[in-house]
Each structure stands twice: as C-alpha cells, then as structure tokens.
Write a structure and sequence with these properties.
Number of helices: 17
Strand content: 5-15%
Radius of gyration: 26 Å
Mean pLDDT: 90
Structural class: alpha/beta
Distance between the termini: 47 Å
Number of strands: 7
Strand order of the largest sheet: 1-7-6-5-4-3-2
Shape: flat
C-alpha cells in the first residue's frame, strides 16, 4: 500500500439506480446509513480500515514518515493500541484518549533521539478531531495509562533508545474520491479544522476490506442487480455502498424474523438464509436500493408489532414508588441504588413474564390485539410479586456496580 498525499482515479460513478444519483451520494445516503448501521456497518468499516492501516504502517517500516508542520522521521516501530483491551479499559478509567497506533522512529539528523507520534485510522475524515492525536493526548496517555506506557518503554528498550520526543500526530485515510468529498464537507464546518498535512493517504484494498464477515457474501448479488461499470472488488466507494446494503439486508431479515418476545436478546441471522431471500427478492427488484426499500416496507408490520408489545411489557413498578420505598428505608437518594434495584427488578420481570407467556414468534397466528391483551394481563399479574421484591431489594441495600458508582461521581463533579 503506497503512502502519499494526493488522490487519483475516477471512482464516483453516476447512475439513476443509486439513491442520490451517484456512488458517493449512495454511500452517504441517510436512510442507507441508518438501516446499515443497525446491521453494524460503520463499526465493521472502522475496524476493517484499522486493519488496512496496520498493514500499511508495517509496510512503511524504515521509511520516512511525515510530521505536520515539522520535519519527518524514519519509522522504526508501530505499536497497535486499538486491539489491546487493557489499554482501552485503563484509558476509559483515566478519561484519557487513546489513538489507534503509536509510531516510534528517529530523524536521520539525530539518530539517538526517539520520536513518538500518534496515528489514528480514519475512514471518514469529516469526523476528525485533531486533538485525538495531539502531543498533549500522547503525553497524558503514556503518563496515566500504565499498559500503554509499558508498551512504549519496552519498544524503546528494544530499539536501544531513551526518552522520546512527542510530536504532532496524523490521521491515516484512504486515497479516494470519497475522502476528497468528506474533506470538503469537513472544511465547511467551522468547528472542524483539518490541515492537509495532518492526513496521510494510503491506497485501499477494496477486495480485502470485508473478507470473512458474514454479510460479505451478499455484496456480489446486490452489485450484480445494478451492474454498474465498476465493481466492489476494485472500487472502494462501490464496496462501501454495497457492504452497507448487505448489512441493511441482514438487519431487515432479523427485523422480520426476530421473536416479538423472547428470553434471549441475541438474534444473529444465518447468512445463507438471508442470501436465499435476497436471491428471491432480486428477481423483482429494479435496483439493489429498491430491493432494500421494499424489504423494509415488508417487515414494517413486525417492527410495529414488536414496538407495541414492548410498550405493553413494561415493568409494573413506577420509579416514584421505588424512590419512595428507598426514602422510607432510610437509604437516602443515591441514584446508583435506584438504578441497581431497577435493574434487578427488570431482570426478574423479564424472566417471569417469559415463563408466563412463552416465546412469541414474529409469525404468531394470534391477532396482534389478542397478543397484546395476553401480555398485558401477564404483566399486571406480576405487580404484587415485583412490589414485594422491590421492598426486599431495598431493605437488603443492593449495591451499585463500580461503573454505576463512577457514573454517579462524574455526575456529581
């Protein structure tokens, strides 16, 4: 993956089959993003771009690497932080930002002075915050996050170098017309100040971007419906758009089949089953986008039924009654205690409600009003039991979890 700072190639194909009329408009289309992100699209895109950045950084070993507004350095080692859970945990506890990578190297003019720089993988450059890779962020990270400091110190020892000089960081983004578009968008926002020297562009590998993800097998069938003059294997924006549609299909299939009421919140669609339905729908679809739109319309009754049931299956204990019980017990008004008791009550309620009603599938033959009435009756029948449990939990003084205590402390500050 060559490293550089200029964009090349024509990627943004126009077609009436695409929402917005072009690949860039389609990839950034609001409804496409909403449905696809419910299927995990943005998270996967960020994770996979970080992997491509990691590979590019490793390939750049011993090459000259840029520093914004200063002399560059020869890259000697890359420390990946985004896949070290301990670093993220400690950084969160210390309220410290942590970039995806830390780069270590030296300048040819002073080979004994270590250079330390942050680098962050950024697929969408309109979301860049220069502070994420600032000198202050890196210095604080190394100061207060022990696991990050140990990684840096171990690497410095391995390189035979002493204390590093921290320099301004960079963002690694794809060399693409999509990046150019998002950069123009970012510069129109007064709150976002991005200088071209803070961006390092690398050539993306669209074919490898989403390898082995469950929804990837849907990309080809969706792209073949539109038959554009570019393919997801070679065109990054095409790969992003059809990947987003693939994630949307996974989400919509789940919306149509997820039980209205279940003891489990996990519901992962089997890609082969989704692919089979996609193939069936493709026969009547004029475009990949129209296929997804029609699919969304078809599952809307299940979506509305699930929401209606959720509105009925609510904990039959009012928050004001819970707070009053805590006051009567002399436990004070600790919001963490309220949340802890509410959490335990809700878990008990969900378990008992499921025992009374059983799982209610998305294609339950009963009319929806009958289902809602049955669930409402079961919910009301649990009210005395839950009221007694509430008093028991308050008397026992359920202790808030560490995360809840931390949240309370931050709120107090």
């Amino acid at each position: 993956m060559p490293v550089g700072n200029d964009s090349r190639g024509v990627e943004n194909v126009s077609s009436p089959l695409l929402p917005g009329g072009s690949l860039i408009a389609a990839a950034l289309h609001r409804q496409v993003m909403i449905w696809s992100d419910r299927g995990g699209a943005s998270r996967h895109i960020g994770d996979r771009w970080a992997i491509q950045c990691w590979e590019a950084l490793q390939a750049a070993d011993d090459r000259c690497w840029p520093v914004p507004f200063a002399s560059g350095f020869r890259l000697k080692r890359v420390i990946r932080l985004d896949d070290v859970p301990q670093v993220s945990r400690e950084a969160n506890l210390q309220q410290a930002e942590n970039p995806d990578f830390l780069l270590l190297g030296v300048r040819d003019t002073d080979p004994d002075q270590a250079i330390l720089q942050a680098a962050d993988a950024k697929f969408a450059v309109d979301r860049i915050k220069p502070s994420q890779v600032s000198v202050d962020v890196v210095e604080r990270l190394v100061e207060v996050v022990a696991s990050a400091r140990q990684l840096v110190e171990a690497t410095l020892r391995d390189l035979g170098l002493g204390a590093p000089l921290v320099v301004r960081g960079v963002f690694v983004c794809p060399r693409s017309a999509l990046t150019d578009h998002l950069l123009r968008k970012a510069r129109s926002n007064r709150d976002v100040q991005v200088h071209h020297s803070e961006l390092v562009r690398i050539d993306p590998d669209p074919a490898a971007m989403f390898v082995d993800l469950p929804m990837t097998r849907l990309i080809g069938p969706l792209a073949r419906i539109d038959a554009l003059p570019v393919t997801p294997r070679t065109n990054l924006i095409s790969a992003i758009y059809y990947f987003r549609l693939a994630c949307a299909c996974m989400h919509l299939w789940a919306e149509g089949h997820r039980p209205l009421l279940s003891a489990s919140t996990a519901f992962e669609p089997e890609p082969g089953i989704v692919s089979a339905e996609l193939t069936m729908r493709a026969n009547q679809a004029s475009s990949a986008w129209s296929l997804v739109q029609t699919w969304a319309q078809d599952v809307e009754p299940q979506v509305q039924a699930r929401q209606a049931l959720a509105n009925v299956a609510t904990l039959p204990v009012r928050m004001r009654d819970l707070r009053a019980e805590i006051e009567r017990a002399g436990k004070g008004d600790h919001s963490g205690l309220v949340r802890a008791v509410r959490r335990d009550l809700d878990l008990h309620f969900r378990r008992r409600l499921f025992e009374l009603t059983g799982e209610i599938s998305a294609d339950d033959p009963r009319p929806l009003p009958r289902i809602l009435d049955d669930v409402a009756k079961a919910t009301r029948s649990l009210q005395p039991e839950l009221a007694a449990l509430m008093k028991s939990l308050v008397t026992a003084g359920t202790t808030p979890s560490p995360s809840e205590r931390a949240s309370d402390e931050l709120t107090a500050e």
